[in-house]
Amino acid sequence: MKRVAGLVGLMICLFCLVAMAKGDTTPSQCQQERKLLEDSCKTRLLLGLSPSATCCQHVRVTHVECVCPKVTPKLANLINVQRTIKQIEGCGRTVPRNFKCGSVTTPP
C-alpha cells in the first residue's frame, strides 16, 4: 500500500509536466529522478497540501519522459487532475491543455 501511495504522489506531481526540456536520459537517471520526486512530494500532495520548496525544485527539473510512462489507467483513476494542475502551477510550471501523459489527458 505504501508503494502505491508513493507512486500516486509521484504521478500527482508530474503527470503533466510538458514544459521540461526533453533530453536523453538513461533508465537509471529516470529512476533516480522519480525517486527524488516521490521522496520530496508524496506526503504533502497526497494530502492536497501545497508542494514544499524541495518538491517544487524537483518538479521543475524532472523530465516528463521519465514520468509519463508510469501513468497507467488504474493510476489515472486515483489522480485529481484539477488539483494536480493547481499544485504544479504552484511550483511555477505551465500545464498545457490537452496534453497526453500516459493514460491521462489534461482538460481543455
Average residue-wise pLDDT: 77
Tally of distinct domains: 1
Over the alpha carbons, how many angstroms does the gyration radius reach? 12 Å
* SS element count, helices: 6
Model regions low in confidence, pLDDT < 50 over at least 5 residues: 4-10, 15-21
* Pattern of helices and strands: HHHHHHEE
How far apart the termini lie comes to 32 Å
Notable traits:
Bifun_inhib/LTP/seed_sf, two-stranded antiparallel ribbon, 108 residues, mainly alpha, Bifunctional inhibitor/plant lipid transfer protein/seed storage helical domain-containing protein, signal, single chain, Bifunc_inhib/LTP/seed_store, lipid-binding, 2 strands, 56% helix
Tell me what the structure shows.
- With 108 residues, the protein is mainly α.
- It has one domain (2-19, 29-105).
- Helices cover 56% and strands 4% of the residues.
- It has six helices and two strands.
- The chain has a two-stranded antiparallel sheet with strand order 1-2.
- A hairpin with a 2-residue loop joins strand 1 and strand 2.
- Helix 1 (2-14) packs across helix 2.
- The longest helix has 20 residues, at 27-46.
- The model is unreliable at 4-10 and 15-21 (pLDDT under 50).
Please sum up the structure shown.
This protein is mainly α.
Helices, strands, pairings?
Elements: H1 2-14, H2 27-46, H3 53-61, H4 64-67, H5 73-76, H6 81-90, E1 100-101, E2 104-105
Antiparallel strand pairs: 1-2
Helix pairs in contact: 1-2, 2-3
